[in-house]
């Protein structure tokens, strides 16, 4: 019996027991769908993280009071004792760093934005130094960016995200118009490019104002984040980072041998840390999903054993007509492998669909990886073959005389 004939017989057998085949597939479908959904969401999160941090450029790093990611309550409590990074610290680094090509600083809070009778709540208010647009690759689609004069004079001008434009200035050009942030008036000079939403939160509900104007409204005591641009990635980045580290330790009087009282993060550090978290999450979720595959494989083995028992006489007739043990083995292995492959295909479609529904419902990013689709089909087929070996071998070893006597 050749492979083509064995495949035809396997299809006929599965089609003859449609309901049983469908019920048998459920375990494999659930397992593969779980794996594909998890991998798709993890890939989406990794892609978002890489895109988010790489938008600053590979040669940009940050200096902040707290790290981007805190992994325990004890660590958070310890880090809260750190002194704030103030605008004077930023000025000190700006004046003394010789390897820094560009520097900027930022603070942020949440406030209500009002224009006439319209308002937007929970808007992010960003206080920028005038260099921040270039450091963050902020694209101004209408109007202009901040200037050094705006910062020097604490001008009440602002740049807005597209959500502010859509909600407060529908159908009109917002450039030159006024809005109020926590009661303080600002004139709009620029509109930023639309960035969309991530993890269910809009990235366009924000207002950027000069940092000096921001601090007049919200005070100067809160910590700022410093952004530093080196000449390029590689050695110049390390040199600039080392120089800034020395300047900050000197400025903050960190004792020799003591840990830094601030956090210096490069894009690679942040991306690596975040990717490690998502991979760990994916490994745990994948392990749980693998249990479903094992259960599905056991169900396949059980059904194939039932099939062997039901078809004992058929097996005896095939052997009497000249079928070799390896022909019987191939027939039953093809049935279990085909059953698992179909379940894997349905699981792949279902997993991608679940991931897309999560993206639509809560804005969690998802990216379909071709390797995960191929791997899902391979793993499903391998599961069917592995758990189908015992029933197929049992069928192949049946004595034809005994098999022909079966009812």
Topology:
Layout: H1 3-16, H2 18-54, E1 60-64, H3 73-79, H4 87-96, E2 102-115, E3 118-128, H5 132-135, E4 140-143, H6 148-152, E5 157-160, H7 162-168, E6 178-181, E7 184-192, E8 197-198, E9 201-202, E10 206-210, H8 211-218, E11 225-229, H9 235-251, E12 263-266, H10 267-310, H11 312-320, H12 325-362, H13 370-396, H14 400-405
Parallel strand pairs: 3-10, 5-7
Antiparallel strand pairs: 1-11, 1-12, 2-3, 2-6, 2-11, 4-7, 5-10, 6-7, 8-9
Helix pairs in contact: 1-12, 2-10, 2-12, 2-13, 4-9, 10-12, 10-13, 12-13
Structure report:
The chain is α+β, with helices and mostly antiparallel strands. The protein has two domains: 3-51 and 273-405, no CATH class; 83-261, no CATH class. It is built from 14 helices and twelve strands. The chain has helices spanning 3-16, 18-54, 73-79, 87-96, 132-135, 148-152, 162-168, 211-218, 235-251, 267-310, 312-320, 325-362, 370-396, 400-405; strands spanning 60-64, 102-115, 118-128, 140-143, 157-160, 178-181, 184-192, 197-198, 201-202, 206-210, 225-229, 263-266. Strands 2-3-10-5-7-6 form a six-stranded mixed β-barrel. A two-stranded antiparallel sheet has the order 8-9. A hairpin with a 2-residue loop joins strand 6 and strand 7. It is elongated. The model has no long low-confidence stretch (mean pLDDT 83).
């Amino acid at each position: 019996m050749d492979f083509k004939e064995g495949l035809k017989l396997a299809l006929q057998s599965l089609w003859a027991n449609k309901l049983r085949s469908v019920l048998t597939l459920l375990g494999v479908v659930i397992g593969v769908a779980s794996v594909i959904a998890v991998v798709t969401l993890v890939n989406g999160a990794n892609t978002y993280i890489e895109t988010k941090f790489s938008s600053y450029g590979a040669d940009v790093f940050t200096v902040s009071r707290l790290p981007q990611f805190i992994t325990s309550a004890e660590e958070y409590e310890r880090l809260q004792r750190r002194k704030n990074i103030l605008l004077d610290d930023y000025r000190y680094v700006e004046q003394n760093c010789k390897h820094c090509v560009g520097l900027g600083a930022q603070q942020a809070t949440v406030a209500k934005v009002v224009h006439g009778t319209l308002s937007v709540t929970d808007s992010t208010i960003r206080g920028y130094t005038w260099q921040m647009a270039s450091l963050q690759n902020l694209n101004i689609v209408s109007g202009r960016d901040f200037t050094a004069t705006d910062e020097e004079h604490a001008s009440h001008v602002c740049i807005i995200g597209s959500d502010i434009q859509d909600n407060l200035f529908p159908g009109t050009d917002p450039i030159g118009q006024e809005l109020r942030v926590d009661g303080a008036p600002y004139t709009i000079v620029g509109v930023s490019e639309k960035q969309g939403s991530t993890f269910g939160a809009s990235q366009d509900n924000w207002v950027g104002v000069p940092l000096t104007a921001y601090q007049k409204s919200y005070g100067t005591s809160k910590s700022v984040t410093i952004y530093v641009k080196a000449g390029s990635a590689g050695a110049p980045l390390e040199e600039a980072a080392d120089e800034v580290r020395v300047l900050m330790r000197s400025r903050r009087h960190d004792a020799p041998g003591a840990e830094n009282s601030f956090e210096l993060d490069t894009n690679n550090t942040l991306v690596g840390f975040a990717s490690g978290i998502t991979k760990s999450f994916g490994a745990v979720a994948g392990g749980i999903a693998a249990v479903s595959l094992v259960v599905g494989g056991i169900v396949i083995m059980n059904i194939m054993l039932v099939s062997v028992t039901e078809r004992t006489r058929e097996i005896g007739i095939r052997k009497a007509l000249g079928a070799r043990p390896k022909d019987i083995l191939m027939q039953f292995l093809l049935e279990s492998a085909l059953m698992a492959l179909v379940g894997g295909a349905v699981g792949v479609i279902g997993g991608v669909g679940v991931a897309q529904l999560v993206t639509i419902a809560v804005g969690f990013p998802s990216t379909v990886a071709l390797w995960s689709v191929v791997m899902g089909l391979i793993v499903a087929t391998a599961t069917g073959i592995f758990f189908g070996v015992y029933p197929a071998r049992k069928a192949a070893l049946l004595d034809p005389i005994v098999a022909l006597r079966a009812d």
